[in-house]
Write a structure and sequence with these properties.
The chain is an all-alpha fold. The chain has one domain. The protein contains four helices and no strands. Helix 1 packs across helix 2, helix 1 crosses helix 3 and helix 3 runs antiparallel to helix 4. The longest helix is centred in the C-terminal third of the chain and has 19 residues. It is globular and about 45 Å long.
Length: about 90
Protein backbone atom coordinates (compact mmCIF):
# COMPACT_ATOMS: atom_id res chain seq x y z
CA UNK A 1 0.00 0.00 0.00
CA UNK A 2 2.89 2.39 0.71
CA UNK A 3 4.02 2.15 -2.93
CA UNK A 4 0.52 3.05 -4.08
CA UNK A 5 0.44 6.04 -1.74
CA UNK A 6 3.77 7.30 -3.05
CA UNK A 7 2.65 6.86 -6.68
CA UNK A 8 -0.59 8.73 -6.05
CA UNK A 9 1.29 11.59 -4.38
CA UNK A 10 3.68 11.77 -7.33
CA UNK A 11 0.80 11.80 -9.83
CA UNK A 12 -0.99 14.44 -7.78
CA UNK A 13 2.13 16.61 -7.74
CA UNK A 14 2.61 16.37 -11.51
CA UNK A 15 -1.03 16.86 -12.44
CA UNK A 16 -1.46 19.89 -10.18
CA UNK A 17 1.99 21.45 -10.60
CA UNK A 18 2.74 21.32 -6.88
CA UNK A 19 5.83 23.16 -5.71
CA UNK A 20 8.67 20.62 -5.37
CA UNK A 21 9.72 22.27 -2.10
CA UNK A 22 6.60 20.93 -0.38
CA UNK A 23 7.20 17.66 1.43
CA UNK A 24 5.38 14.44 0.48
CA UNK A 25 4.37 14.10 4.12
CA UNK A 26 2.03 17.09 3.63
CA UNK A 27 -0.04 14.97 1.24
CA UNK A 28 0.44 11.50 2.73
CA UNK A 29 -2.25 11.95 5.40
CA UNK A 30 -4.70 13.28 2.81
CA UNK A 31 -4.14 10.15 0.71
CA UNK A 32 -4.53 7.84 3.71
CA UNK A 33 -7.68 9.64 4.83
CA UNK A 34 -9.08 9.44 1.30
CA UNK A 35 -8.35 5.73 1.03
CA UNK A 36 -10.07 5.12 4.35
CA UNK A 37 -13.06 7.28 3.41
CA UNK A 38 -13.62 5.71 0.00
CA UNK A 39 -13.05 2.14 1.22
CA UNK A 40 -15.37 2.71 4.17
CA UNK A 41 -18.11 4.07 1.94
CA UNK A 42 -17.79 1.17 -0.51
CA UNK A 43 -17.52 -1.44 2.24
CA UNK A 44 -14.41 -3.07 0.82
CA UNK A 45 -10.71 -2.52 0.24
CA UNK A 46 -10.15 -1.10 -3.23
CA UNK A 47 -7.02 -1.70 -5.31
CA UNK A 48 -6.15 1.83 -6.45
CA UNK A 49 -3.58 0.43 -8.89
CA UNK A 50 -6.25 -1.39 -10.90
CA UNK A 51 -9.39 0.71 -10.39
CA UNK A 52 -8.72 3.95 -12.22
CA UNK A 53 -12.11 5.45 -11.32
CA UNK A 54 -11.33 5.01 -7.62
CA UNK A 55 -7.82 6.35 -8.17
CA UNK A 56 -9.18 9.47 -9.86
CA UNK A 57 -11.67 9.99 -7.04
CA UNK A 58 -8.86 9.62 -4.50
CA UNK A 59 -6.71 12.22 -6.25
CA UNK A 60 -9.65 14.62 -6.27
CA UNK A 61 -10.12 13.92 -2.55
CA UNK A 62 -6.50 14.96 -2.01
CA UNK A 63 -6.98 18.08 -4.14
CA UNK A 64 -9.99 19.23 -2.14
CA UNK A 65 -8.42 18.23 1.20
CA UNK A 66 -5.34 20.25 0.38
CA UNK A 67 -7.61 23.23 -0.30
CA UNK A 68 -9.60 22.61 2.92
CA UNK A 69 -12.81 22.10 0.90
CA UNK A 70 -13.90 18.55 1.78
CA UNK A 71 -17.56 19.48 2.27
CA UNK A 72 -17.65 20.81 -1.29
CA UNK A 73 -15.88 17.67 -2.53
CA UNK A 74 -18.47 15.42 -0.87
CA UNK A 75 -21.35 17.27 -2.47
CA UNK A 76 -19.74 17.37 -5.92
CA UNK A 77 -18.48 13.77 -6.00
CA UNK A 78 -21.20 11.86 -4.15
CA UNK A 79 -22.39 10.27 -7.41
CA UNK A 80 -18.88 8.87 -7.99
CA UNK A 81 -18.94 7.43 -4.46
CA UNK A 82 -22.28 5.76 -5.20
CA UNK A 83 -21.03 4.42 -8.52
CA UNK A 84 -18.02 2.81 -6.82
CA UNK A 85 -20.27 1.42 -4.11
CA UNK A 86 -22.47 -0.17 -6.79
CA UNK A 87 -19.41 -1.62 -8.54
CA UNK A 88 -18.16 -3.24 -5.34
CA UNK A 89 -21.53 -4.33 -3.99
CA UNK A 90 -21.57 -8.00 -3.08
CA UNK A 91 -24.99 -9.55 -2.70
CA UNK A 92 -25.01 -10.84 0.86
CA UNK A 93 -28.38 -12.61 0.37
CA UNK A 94 -29.69 -11.25 3.65
Amino acid sequence: MEDTIKKIIEEYRLENQINPNREDSEFENYVKEGIYDINDFCGTEIDYEKDLDARCLLKNYVLYSNSKRLAEFKSLYMEEYHELQRNYYINSKL
